[in-house]
Records
---
Amino acid sequence: MDAQINIPVLDDTELRVLGALMEKCKTTPDYYPMTLNGLTTACNQKTSRKPVVDYDEETVVLALDSLKKRGLISTATGGSSRAVKYKHNFAIVFPVVPAEVAVICLLILRGPQTPGEINTNSGRLYEFETLDEVQEVLEKLSQPDMPFVQQLPKRAGQKEVRYVHLLGGTPVIADEDEPNEPARRNVGDLELRLAKVETELAEMKEAFDKLMKELMG
């Protein structure tokens, strides 16, 4: 690669919206592209998110407008629904492959992660064959010409190094008092299943509300 990629600096809301779209593209493809209601629910999930947020639709719309101006998301219409839906363009804007998108997505939604946590939490985003494959992706994304992530200094008593994304600018890492518990595969699977249920419920509520409006009208 001849020239360095120009990495955008996004705020927390833009990151959450973009990350949610990147995640749902893989984990709930039947509901992708996403409606505003479904996307807001995805942003506010209580699982697989750090920190947990409580955005209203207006907040999500403002972030979508900003991301659209940067070319990072686009709208999709058509099919049986007339509602505007949204999809991310991350892999179109940047020369990244699915494994790299999965790693960046996890770091956006969950915060700093060790290679082991990324390997465990990747779930249906991407199935890494080995921990070495995760490490190779992290090293590629840390190169000067493709600076999407960086390695953090080790904390006291920590065995594995953590990585953080750089889409929000230079990270400010606060001291964390809680122990860095190893992620477990079964917990990751449960979180993914719960997240899918939350998305499905949001879509069902939206369809019900639409039906009620038609009946009342």
Note: The chain has one domain: 7-217.
---
Amino acid sequence: MPDITLINVESSQIHSIGHDPATKTLAIRFKNYKGEATSLYHYSNVTAEEFAAFRNAESIGSHFGKHIKPFDKKYPYVKVDAAPAA
């Protein structure tokens, strides 16, 4: 499991994102209903170009919902942890 540095983003549902181009792994930490950081997921097969499009999208949440989430065969994912370290 790669150790991926996360950057905070402006989104109502996504807290932070990161990418490891060597392993083509996208890391997404989501927010709970209070807006607090929660679960961290790693998505496979995400190229640097795809990550750049995601990172630079006008709406990161919408981009995720349209281009990544529906394609779990192309971008298989694993839950890395349930909450950020204190």
Note: The first strand starts at residue 7 and ends at 8.
---
Amino acid sequence: MRSACDVPHLRNNTVRSLQRELDSLKADGLHRWLRRVDSPQGSRIRVDGREAIHLAGNDYLGLACHPLLTQAACQAALQYGCAAASARLISGNYDLYPQLEEQLARFKQTEAALLFSTGYQANLGVISALMGSQDVVFSDALNHASIVDGCRLSRAQVRIFPHNDLITLERLLKQEISTGRRLIVVDGLYSMDGDVAPLREIVGLAERYDCMTLVDDSHGTGVLGETGRGAAEAMGVLGRIDIETGSLAKALGGFGAYVVGSRTVVEYLINRARPFIFTCALPPAVPATVLKALTIVDQEPQRRQRLWDNTRYMRAGLREVGFEVSPSGTQIIPLMVGEPERAMRFCQELLDRGVFAQGIRYPSVPRGTERIRLTVTAAHSKADLDAALAALAEAGRTLQLV
């Protein structure tokens, strides 16, 4: 039995081992730190004490600081206070939450919706609640970390197929003879690569091989499709996805997340999804802002049009400079670098020139695919994009990337 005098020694050993791991991350170019932001989100941002053109965020429609959203948040805070102070299953279910859920279900053309505190919790909650050790999940290799962790937490058998590889997916579906539940899970719009999942073909395979489908459309909601309903609308399968999760903190300018699907699935999650059951409800200001955001998405399609105009302009400018640009056509544009130290040097070269675009490294992306991730928004002016392209050209030449 350990004596009390042993404890500080053990604690010091633990701290030293943690420091060794941190030193190893630094040596490998994988150390992370928090930047300081002291301005609102927008086309420009003050980061680490300097103003820069903002190409690193996810405020795709420019709604995060929209006056109607901030007004709705203030009114909700005055009416309900700053916190729900309880889980929704106890005393935290203010009327704003079911209002937003009904609106989200209508928007996504599903039977029901359920709010979660974060997108991460939504994927953890759905996958771990629906799937168990006798079940099988077919997961895209580039799925978001929350999907990966949800699969692990569920203890289901996981079959990983290469990114968007429908041939391998069908082969795995044919080979798997489990009699339990079967689930295909993908991102709708991949946050680091900017490409859209082939949902029409995936849904066809799911229907042929008796699988449920789960799509995380965090980066497509509000953006993709004729009316902004997301990847399912853009791919022509609206109403055929079994379950969709997504963030309210990106194009919708709020916070939290949603799950949409059948009434049976939503009722099941209310009873079985631990991240929902055991988490305090979102602050009342959050659903109030998202309700307003959904109205703007519906009433102001010109925001999406401006986003796509800016995206086409930026992509054409990058090609003209000499960068290799993916053909996906979305607002997420990765510029491949291939080395962690070089990616972060590229990031710093850009910041020195007044552009903030984050370097992305393992484990956010596979090793050897380190990159700068550019995100275009509806809020950017042509002057912003021209200045950013000039900085990208200079930094690219400095690092011999173009």
Note: The two ends are 63 Å apart (CA to CA).
---
Amino acid sequence: MNSQAKTRKAVQVVVIGGGIMGTLVARELSRYELDLLLLEKEAEVGWGTTKANSGIVHAGIHEDPGTLKAKYCFPGNQMFPKLCEDLDVSFRQNGILVVALSEEEMNMVHMYYQRGLERGVPVRLLSREEVLAQEPNLTTEVVGAVFAPEGGSVMPFELAAAAMENAVANGAELMVESPVINAWAEGSKKYLETPTHIIEAEIVINAAGLFTDDIARMFGDDYFSIEPRKGEEYLFDLEFEGLVTSTIFPVPRSQVSKGILVIPTSEGNLMIGPTSDHVGLKDDLSTSYQGFERIFSESRRLVPGLDSRKIIAQFAGLRAASDRSDFIIEFSPSVPGLLYLAGIESPGLTAAPAIAADVPKMLEEQGLKLVPKGNFQPRREGVVRFRLLSREEQDELIRQNPAYGRIVCRCETVTEAEIVDAIRRGARTLDGIKFRTRAGAGRCQSGFCQPVLMEILSRELGIPYEQVSKRGSGTEQVRYKAKELLGKGVS
């Protein structure tokens, strides 16, 4: 499609990138009377760095003094309980435990403890006996630890989807499968080209994660770069729920990583990882046996009872690390009204709500007049999680809607009604359903439920079965003729 044939659209503010940073910014800006648009290149939001994020809500003790990471981490941490309550997102404030296995490492633990005290972070020093009383399945080699009880765990992709859903309910617009393929400025106006549109904007907020530097170069800015670092992670079956209750950190051995962790997710699974390896490509999501060996051996140093036979999934994500080793939160030096939210690596998830809360102030300093909406609704309509309800509550739901009585995902006890609700809230793919409802996230990894999920997506979206995809165009799961043959009983 040539540029002349594309639809032209003018808005006040465009957010590029539907990760946790972009979606929380969109939600924050939806509080104001603004013509607001978010562009996401994937079929749904939350699928870049956000999807493979560990989900840890950091306490605010690891970050080096004087950095933007330190500035935003603890304030962001303090926002999570209310944010997740408003958006009805799973959140577990299980605490963070940084464990020392030697007297030398205890020196670092003391440093983190003092740093926490200086920043107002609730922290406690624990002796060996206190650590093992709190976490009896840790290694007996533990010497001591610092415990930060307000650390937590969240499902980052669920949070991104919920934030965007709330932003749209408050008037924001979302365009998915809309990668920015060209961008330029003319005077005070910025222009973004997608495969189908030419979009004119007064303000552009570049929150494109791994691709923030690519977008910057389109505008002529070449003063920072993103240097992706890959992290592999491994997820255990729910059978291990409760083996540890806090997120277990070792004492870090390098400046670029907090080490290999044992992470109780907000949904109960244990997860181990991540690695931290510089890679040259922004699409290298491969896992490796070497990565697994490193993660598993380091994790078992902390929690000897881990059993690799209980791993049900493995994946890798890429951190959008910048060449500054810190967040980049600033306006372009050459393009007025172009705001960069770049290099948002760990603790980016934790810091994101606090960064987003500062964005309106930054825009006002650039001259944008912001008028608060009188009818802004901060709360998202609640989500039914059937598996967590009492028998009496489940029975009542089934009486109201028999689709709650049809279990589609047996591993995670997800009902047809929950899947339909997820689709009506924005899920368009199998991954979209998985990340919103956990259907397909359990022991069999959708081995049993995928055909039924595909049937429901086909029915609810009004699309042919063969157009149902895992994660958007190019990931369709069946061919039409195969479906036709199956219908005739041919195997």
Note: The chain has a mean pLDDT of 95.
